[in-house]
Amino acid sequence: MAHAAFYGIGAYVAAIMAIKLNCAFGVTVLCSIIFSMFFGILIGVSTLRIKGDYFVIATFAFQVITFSILNNWVGFTGGPDGIPGIPQPVILGWRVTSSIGFLLIVGGICAIIIWGGHRIGNSPFGRVLKAIREDEIFTQSKGKSVETFKILIFTLGAGIAALAGSLYAYYVSYINPTSFTVMESIFIICIVIIGGAGSTWGPVIGALVLVTLPEILRFVGLPNSIAANLRQILYGGLLVTFMIWRPRGFLGKYAFQNREARK
Amino acid sequence: MLTQLILNAFISASIYILIAVSFTIIFRVVRFFHFTHAVIFTAGAYFVFFLRMELSFPFLIAVPTAIFASALLGCLIELTIYRSLRAKSTPPLVMLLVSLGIYIVLQNIISIAFGDDTKIIRSNLITEGFNLFGARITFIQGLTICTTIILLLLLVLFLKITRTGKAIRAVSSDPELAAISGIESSRIIIWAFAIGSAICGLAGILLSFDVGMTPTMGLTALMMGLVVAIIGGLANVSGIVLGGLLLGLAQQLGIWKFGAEWQDAIAFGILLGFLIVKPQGILGKNTKKATI
């Protein structure tokens, strides 16, 4: 439940470094990833003993605290007003100004991440992760440190979220805390569940569906205030529907089932 | 100053305790985090608003009807959605996500119906307040504290004495043993939802009388209730009362020292601390690990 927190940390670190320290695009992105990964390790290590639902609540707590800091530490993060005027990124002397340019960069990085995710999934490291998903105690008995793997993957996830956050900050050039609320975390969960957890392409499909559906709603021509609510109703409704009828999502392999139920 | 601070702590603690107790009753029998509870809190307040301000019923009719409607809403969610999922032995994490989804849907329906702005129930109940040991307290705030104390006593009596209350405790502590003893758990779960939702709706009504209502107030309130419930170990009433007072005092001290905007961070900092150091709650005993 804390993914939007890492996403937000990434965005804020990138924004602050780009404006106050005038750092180059690559440096800020890298720093925001490292910074967020550091938090990932911190949260991962401290919440390791917390299991299941309680872990969800603990990450939820981290999310709320992060939002609270972004929103209230006015001197550093600009508080509710956010940070305006993030400069356009310059990559190898090429100043990215158009949306198409951004699409190319973000699409390229996204492709690399998907490829990397796929590679990890099929590597020995990925096999251990799958084993942990299926049976923690068994994996432990085979001499793999479940805890180390959990912290590693949690940290990696935090880093990727920060990468997304820093790209977002550069793209919209203005960030404020409302983009990184609990609702955003829930939205990310919706993407994963609807696309299908435990598959490389699942989240891609999930994101495509959840981003394009509201655009269709826009054609219906509803007033703006209701449209925002309807979009959320749509997300909530989809989440419930998928959990009831297709818990594994469009492409997922992991069905969120009890071990007894799977047998 | 200090008396006012303590009094304010008691007022906010009362609301937290009501939410935490009602949440725990349901949690203990269904064993998952029922996030939809947040919207029942909101719905209670909006039911009163609708009945009182738009249909202009008197309070004596509007408030009990709203409490009843909250209970009904809770039971309805259980009957239509949770029950079929439970039959498929759905894991708690999925139930949590489902309840979150229902929360989002219902909260946005309230937003569309009433708008996102703060609604206030105008009443002659709002007076200037009176003095209590040098601190100011309004009628509603006094009522909130008294209602909480009376409700807690009634609830403890209900759980200890009546047949249904005992059955709820039985299902809470061991569902299989309860089933063997001939307790029909589905009936008990409905009871738990009815009682829990009614208390939660009432808490929403009390808070809305004091500070008004917005469609998202439920989630904030439930988060605080959740903090209190977890500090209380998601178990007994006395732990929850202690947790509520602890959180109330900590927040008031925080407001005094740092400012009101850090309330959430303080509450969730305490929660994280408890989850990491003492996940079994303030009164919980250290249990030996018995997993597998």
Helix coverage percent of chain A: over 70%
Percent of residues in helices of chain B comes to over 70%
Number of helices of chain B: 11
Spatial shape of chain B: globular
Main beta sheet strand tally, sense and closure of chain B: 2 strands, antiparallel
Amino- and carboxy-terminal Cα gap of chain B = 53 Å
- Radius of gyration of chain A equals 19 Å
- Would you tell me the overall average pLDDT of chain A? 80
Number of domains of chain B: 1
Q: Biggest chain pair contact, residues each?
A: A-B, 45 and 44 residues
The chain-level structural class of chain B is: mainly alpha
Poorly predicted ranges of chain A:
258-263
Shape of chain A: globular
Number of helices of chain A: 12
Q: So what's the oligomer here?
A: heterodimer
Distinctive features:
heterodimer, A: 263 residues, mainly alpha, 12 helices, globular, B: 292 residues, 11 helices, 2 strands
